[in-house]
Design brief:
transmembrane, single chain, carbonic anhydrase, six-stranded mixed β-sheet, Transcription Regulator spoIIAA, four-stranded mixed β-sheet, Beta-carbonic Anhydrase, Chain A, zinc, 31 helices, alpha/beta
């Protein structure tokens, strides 16, 4: 008596990309490895060879001692790596702070800059303790990328002069002005070394695949610096080279106090802290996403802890005489790509830098400054990320990016970022307060479409467009606005009155929320709230078309109730009209578009008015829904593959696609009075024997087609509250007309009266209990169908019972284990919804467990047919 369920399978809607071979290999390493330190050890060595030349180059570009770059790399790796909240992020001196540090060194000297670095670290720690790290995510990515792009261009403009054999000027504009003279002047060997370094970085990833993997695995930055150094050494070029102290420990210097200008020091502290924090946090988020896509399942990033770790590293670096530290995306992405699994890889990379500086530091003095300048030219150029620029442009924030990047280059970092923030706020205000106004002429109709926020800022444009409409013309104004301020309301109301006074007609169609038109009974009251409207694809015609009540003595609307005088069941909703109440006729006063073939006032006939109302709905579909759904229907034009057969009542209040949040192609729907499945072949007979037809072939044919041809994975029977068929079955009103078609049809549901009422329905009215029992009985009837029985035996089909409470707009699911109607979330298996664990957004969705209870009570509990209605009504038999 249980439904068969097919085994779980990956969701068709999963957004997870197929796992590549390398990713699967990485996942296998994370799940089991005899030496858990090995992946981190390998990754740390790769990160070390990438970080070493970058640390030297950034120190040179900043005007700081070269050893300060190595100190910052060591402290960033060990301190930030051990204390930070992003396990796979690697920290160290970053190109994003080069311009700021260079300006601080030029203005205050190196030792005061170390004091500013330590102060920035303390500020970062305080921010981390205040748990405000997530506030950095509110900064527009266009501003961040514009800031980094401006810094990159500044680095390129300065280091390009070093490559050409000269010296960088103090300001970007001075470097730009000096470029022509630097190009014309004769160049020496420094230019050759610099261009060889640049060419090596660009060409190294394109090395032929026939070369050994060990050669091609060397990072391009390290290979370029080594190539430039070897060229200068072999050729005997006399070039300025890196100058290191005799020992790395000699570079350690306590910060010094400034001689006045504490306001500038405070500004420098805030600048370094904010820029370093934002860059580190955004890098941490990016690294976390990158690691997740590669199969890493470690702890998620903790931004507040990351801020504490970065602040601690900057505090130590400032006290030790190192450069400011941030999380660096280049090193971090290298760490992830190299197989780093824990924070040990970041810590070990700092250890390798320390060992190199202590024991092999003299090798650095062979590196020409022009080779490091060539490396920095490429690093700076790559900060202007073209891929990010495309994303920014697609989201409409290109002005923010351009203003920020120009401001950073032309003025300074803080002023550039401030200009970017102001530009971003201006764009937000424009999107919030600006509206789109279009004028379209269709025949004699002038149609005005207004979208967005209609405020006083849009009035000049609205007035200009309305002024183009000739007097006396029919006008349709479509307001698709989320806000209509007082000035716009008064202007629009005055224009409508003047246009109608000149002989024209105006139809105002508000789509979404009602701001302009008010009910007559509250027209003189102050408007305090907006009137919410359902989306038109959910709402009945009466809620979005302009309908008015008209006196009519027409009959009440039809329903699936076979008798209008059936007794009340006690339910809050019923298919029948109350006695003595005649529903008024409704008809459109003025439709939004004259494209409808028949005007609303052409005939007073009620049937004609309802046809006209439907045609307005069809026209609305053509105008609004069809453009959105055309691609979906085009994909479905070649065939259908529904996910379920949905059998429900013909009641007009039941809309399967709405109550299941489904769309075109999802449900193969069967509708009839009472959601009944007529039994053609008794259960238990030979499935290959010829069917004995009951005379009702429609449902049987649909079942055969859905199960055998479409091979739907599930069959759903959905009953509902206040069902007229159940009322007629319970009251016996059709017993006097046994030969009627309706009585013959409802005879297929007579077995529902024999069932024991479902558990948990004792307090419900009889018709509601019978409606639920009927769902279980129709599932039994489905099992008697040969095609269904075969599919259940194969395990390719499951049955589901639903019950829709119209008044509460709530669906209940028939649970197999208890026979009760329960909440859908309670019917789902624990593995899907989770009790203490979380299911990933891209994890496969498991097939729910059987949710169908179709078992009746023992045979001795079945009441005799003569007393079945008495039992349901609670009367003595």
């Amino acid at each position: 008596m249980t439904a068969s369920v097919s085994p779980p399978s990956p969701s068709r809607h999963s957004h997870s990309p197929p796992m590549s071979g390398s990713t699967a290999k990485n996942v296998r390493r994370t799940r089991g490895d005899h030496n858990p330190l090995r992946p981190d050890l390998q990754a740390s060595l790769v990160v070390f060879v990438v970080a070493l030349p970058l640390s030297l180059g950034i120190a040179v570009a900043s005007g700081a001692p070269v050893a300060a770059g190595l100190l910052a790399a060591v402290i960033g790796g060990v301190v930030a790596g051990a204390l930070g909240g992003a396990p796979l992020q690697v920290s160290g001196p970053a190109a994003g702070l080069t311009v700021i540090v260079a300006d601080l060194v030029h203005t205050y000297g190196w030792r005061v800059t170390c004091l500013i670095t330590a102060g920035a670290g303390i500020l970062q720690i305080l921010l981390g303790l205040c748990r405000v790290a997530r506030a950095s995510l509110a900064v527009s990515p266009a501003i961040v990328h514009g800031m980094l792009g401006g810094i990159g261009l500044t680095i390129v403009l300065g280091q390009f002069h070093v490559v050409l054999g000269g010296q960088a000027e103090s300001h970007a504009w001075e470097n730009v002005a000096a470029v022509p003279e630097a190009i014309i002047d004769p160049h020496g060997f420094a230019t050759l070394v610099g261009f060889v370094t640049i060419a090596t970085i660009l060409l190294w990833p394109r090395l032929p695949k026939r070369l050994p993997n060990a050669v091609r695995a060397i990072p391009a930055y390290l290979a370029a610096v080594v190539t430039g150094t070897l060229l200068a050494a072999v050729a005997g070029f006399d070039l300025p080279r890196v100058d290191l102290p005799s020992s790395l420990f000699d570079a350690v210097a306590l910060p010094g106090l400034p001689h006045g200008d504490w306001s500038g020091i405070a500004l420098g502290v805030v600048t370094v802290a904010i820029v370093a924090s934002v860059e580190s946090l955004l890098s941490a988020v990016a690294v976390d996403q990158l690691a997740t896509t590669r199969g890493w399942r470690g702890p998620r990033v903790d931004l507040d802890r990351e801020l504490l770790g970065q602040g601690s590293a900057n505090l130590v670096s400032g006290l030790a005489g190192g450069l400011p530290i941030t999380g660096v995306i280049v090193r971090s992405s290298t760490n992830v790509a190299s197989g780093g699994r824990t924070r040990k890889s970041a810590v070990l990379h700092g250890v390798w830098v320390l060992l190199f500086a202590v024991f092999l530091g003299r090798m650095v003095e062979w590196v020409p400054l022009s080779a490091l300048a060539g490396l920095l030219v490429v690093v700076g150029a790559r900060l202007v990320n073209v891929a990010h620029l495309r994303h920014v442009r697609r989201h409409g924030e290109l002005p923010v990016y351009l203003v920020t990047i120009v401001g950073v280059v032309a003025l300074d970092l803080l002023q550039g970022v401030a200009l970017g923030l102001l530009t971003a706020l201006a764009l937000v205000l424009r999107r919030v307060l600006w509206s789109s106004v279009r004028l379209v002429r269709t025949g004699e109709l002038w149609q005005v479409e207004v979208e967005g926020t209609l405020s006083f800022l849009s009035l000049p444009r609205l007035a200009r467009i309305l002024g183009r409409i000739p007097a006396g013309a029919p006008v349709s104004i479509e307001l698709i606005v989320d806000y209509l301020d007082h000035a716009a309301y008064e202007h629009l109301r005055g224009w409508c009155a003047n246009h109608e006074a000149s002989g024209g007609t105006v139809s105002v169609d508000e789509i979404g929320q009602v701001w302009f038109r008010r009910p007559a009974e509250v027209a003189e009251q102050r408007r305090r709230t907006v009137v919410p409207h359902l989306p038109r694809w959910f709402a009945p015609w009466s809620q979005w078309q302009e309908l008015e009540l008209a006196s009519s003595s027409s009959d009440s609307p039809s329903s699936d109730s076979p008798s209008s005088d059936s007794p009340s069941s006690g339910s809050r909703s019923s298919d029948s009209q109350p006695a003595g109440v005649t529903p008024p006729a409704i008809h459109p006063v003025q439709g939004p578009d004259p494209a409808a073939s028949v005007p609303a006032q052409a005939s007073p006939d009620r049937t004609f008015d309802h046809v006209s109302t439907m045609l307005f709905g069809v026209n609305e579909f053509h105008r609004r829904a069809a453009p959105l759904l055309r691609g979906t229907f085009d994909a479905l034009a070649g065939g259908q593959q529904p996910g379920a057969l949905f059998l429900t009542c013909a009641d007009s209040r039941i809309v399967p696609n709405i109550i299941t949040s489904s769309g075109p192609g999802d449900l193969f729907t069967i509708r009839n009075v009472g959601n009944i499945v007529p039994v053609d072949d008794p259960a238990g007979s030979d499935p290959d024997a010829p069917l004995r037809r009951s005379g009702d072939l429609s449902v049987t044919a649909a079942l055969d087609y859905a199960v055998d041809v479409l091979r739907v994975p599930s069959l759903v029977v959905c009953g509902h509250s206040g069902c007229g068929a159940m009322q007629a079955l319970l009251s016996g009103t059709l017993d006097g007309a046994p030969d009627s078609a309706l009585a013959g049809w409802l005879s297929h549901a007579a077995a529902s009266l024999e069932r024991t009422p479902p558990a948990g329905t004792e307090d419900l009215p009889p018709v509601e209990r019978l409606g639920r029992a009927n769902v279980a009985q129709q599932l039994e009837n489905l099992r008697a169908h040969p095609a269904v029985r075969r599919a259940l035996a194969r395990g390719t089909l499951e049955l589901v019972g639903l019950y829709f409470d119209i008044a509460d707009a709530r669906i209940w699911v028939l649970e197999e284990s208890t026979g009760r109607f329960v909440d859908p979330m309670d019917a789902l298996p624990t593995a899907v919804i989770g009790t203490g664990s979380r299911r990933r957004w891209d994890a496969p969705v498991r097939v729910p467990a059987p949710m169908v209870a179709v078992g009746a009570g023992p045979a001795d509990e079945q009441p005799p047919p003569a007393g079945r209605r008495a039992r349901w009504l609670g009367l003595p038999r």
